[in-house]
Amino acid sequence: MEEESRKRLMPMMDSLAEAHPSHELEIQDLHGWLLNSQAAERHRMNAYRISQSTAIPVGNLIRIFLWGTQKSIFQLHWQQHCPHCNMITAEFDSLSVTTGESFCKMCDVEFTVDFKERVEVTFSLHPSIEELDIPPFCLPPKSLKPLVQLSMARGEVEEADFSVEPGIYRYYCPITMSMGKLQVEQSASKQESELSIRQQDNNTFDPPELRIPAGEVHLKAENSTVPISGLIIHEDRLADPIPFEDLELHLSGLEIIHYPEFREIFGDDALSEREKMTISGVTILFTDITGSTRMYERLGDIQAYNIVKDHFQILIQSIQNNGGTVIKTIGDAVMASFTETSPAFQSIFQALDRFKHYNESKEQDRQVNLKIGIHTGPAILVNLNERLDYFGSTINKAARIQSLAKSHEIAFSEEVLLLPGVKKQLLDRGMRKLRRRQASLKGLSGSHPVYFLSLSQ
User: Fold this and answer.
1) For 187-217, how does the pLDDT look when each residue is reduced to its tens digit (9 = 90+)?
2) How far is it, in rounded angstroms, from Cα 78 to Cα 207?
């Protein structure tokens, strides 16, 4: 990092530490990492990668980045990745201008963007601190089995030796998006092929096409034109979508919107009203207070409202403590979402423990008892009243399942029950009796297995 950037960064990081004294040491650790990092490491920062380097818990690191955006220390970026090659196909600095469809130049394919699996959130230093002349890029995952993976600063030459089988290959740079074709033909010759590929200043390679016999290859790659270039070679085929689990750990679009700090800082940064984002999987939780109408009639609006307010405080805090986010409240009902299902159950168990203590000192008509529903599945992320919201059959099914629950009962779908770890989580809680029912759910065709768990066990 250049000296002027260091000078601009120091007082701003000191100010951030003063604003969040409980995280002062972690902010100092991040400051040290920034000062010692390479430009390519910090031009688009992966919170998970930095967490592994610094031992700062990733959740705290993401919060520090979010707080830093308020002080113009960091900028947040939304990156869309091709499901077939994982190259960045588009980057946006605001959710309000993102699109639900994208195109990969490398694979020559259009695709629907999955907000959970194909949207990555990264951070960079604010341009007022440092401007780097490097476009956003990422490296291919190991599942694509690259034969060569080189990087070159301007003026550098890199060499590599490898062997290649007959077929069609692509050579490309994930930074400049230059691309060429390599045709490898069957041959009885044992002679080593000599390849020379040069990065041009118009985002192309010289030559744009190569033809060689199968066998051993010596490659010389040269960059004399751009600040930094790369060269990767692998088979030129439209690969199956890369499993999310095969990608490097990173902060996803779905994960970031579940941070309360994101909601507080970027609450107005919603999708445009005409855009929607596909989500391959999200867990939806609905809760409702049993007998709330009767409670208002008996206690009057003011006393009943205070009880409902206490209920919101306990429930919302438990949801947020377990990585969930409240999407909306309707009367005394709550709709929340989670990136995983186990934390949804954990938030309910935590809330119930607190409600048990809350109810101990209350008369029966002042106690809070919940009816709960949980379902998981694909959904659509939309802008509703300038806030992020969900739509789709998963949301409808979760609401219908919750309506079947009785007082002090959790109702959930078979999709939830079959998820890894859920049965064990319930058993660890001492809950061994499940009631199963085939139910018709309003607005959904067919009958659906619904499971009921009494919280009085």
Assistant:
1) 877 789 999 999 998 889 999 999 999 999 9
2) 33
Give whole-number Cα distances, 53 to 37, 76, 104, 123, 250, in Å.
11, 20, 31, 16, 14
Domain 270-454, second-level architecture: 2-Layer Sandwich (3.30)
Give Rg (Cα) of the chain.
27
Distance, CA of 130 to CA of 357 (rounded, Å): 52
Report the C-alpha gap between 184 and 215 in whole angstroms.
9
- pLDDT tens digits for 44-97? 999 999 999 999 999 999 999 999 999 999 999 999 999 998 999 999 999 989
Structure tokens, 270: 């919603």
Rounded distance, CA 99 to CA 118, Å? 12
* Residue type for position 221: A
Handedness of CA 31, 32, 36, 42 (dihedral sign): negative
Task: Compute CA distances 96 → 63, 99, 286, 347, 386, whole Å.
Answer: 21, 9, 27, 30, 10
Q: Which residues contact 394 (CB under 8 A, 6 or more apart)?
A: 282, 284, 375, 376, 377, 378, 379
Secondary structure (3-state) at 352 = helix
Long-range Cβ contact pairs of 431-434 (< 8 A, separation 24 or more) = 431/457, 432/457, 433/457
| The two structure tokens encoding residue 85 | 């090659």
CA dist 439 → 400, 414, 444, 448 (Å): 10, 12, 10, 5
